[in-house]
Amino acid sequence: MDLLKERILKDGTVKPGNVLKVDSFLNHQMDIQLINEIGKEFKRLFSDCPVTKILTIEASGIGIACIAAQYFNVPVVFAKKTHTINLDGETYSARVQSFTHQTVYDVILSKKYLGPEDHVLLIDDFLANGCALQGLIEIVNEAGATLEGAGIVIEKGFQSGGKIIRDMGVRLESLAIIDSMSDSSLTFRN
Ligand code: 5GP
Prior knowledge:
Blueprint: H1 2-11, E1 13-15, E2 19-21, H2 23-27, H3 32-45, E3 53-57, H4 60-72, E4 76-82, E5 91-97, E6 104-110, E7 119-127, H5 131-143, E8 146-156, H6 161-167, E9 172-181, E10 186-188
Parallel strand pairs: 3-4, 3-7, 7-8, 8-9
Antiparallel strand pairs: 1-2, 4-6, 5-6, 9-10
Helix pairs in contact: 3-4
The structure holds guanosine-5'-monophosphate.
């Protein structure tokens, strides 16, 4: 998606530890016109899928998922990060290793909001090592729902997540795939 790639080149900054900061338009301040185009693009890419629910993970996936959901006309449900898994059997849960914070946390989702009748599209801002997406996939499987695919805004193609998720047979569409990045240069996959 050219508009997104141009914006990353203009306003993205590379931080130590292979972290791309896009706080001025995606992760802190949000450019709604751009995110609206992102939502439309996800709809175009997954237009053949009978999506009934968009699933994301808090916090930065939520805004993007909500705008995309307007094009799919479906609800958004987001997995909540928690330090204590509720063992009352009312939630699905998965353990996720955080790329940006270098910690492990659990995510939970109420069983009320996802079930075997659902066809799920996963949406998130970044794909790095794939842990967040794998956690969401675990939840979809636990719910017995059908996974239609995953839409990612920025995939860091030099990290392992994209290969892991594609090798699982998941249809993965990333709007911008970064092949390499450093302080002075950033290149995209065509
Ligand atoms: P993964 O689980 O694929 O290793 O990492 C994905 C999650 O980590 C995303 O939900 C995102 O919040 C965060 N993340 C990973 N890499 C980056 C990055 O380069 N920049 C930012 N801003 N977030 C990232």
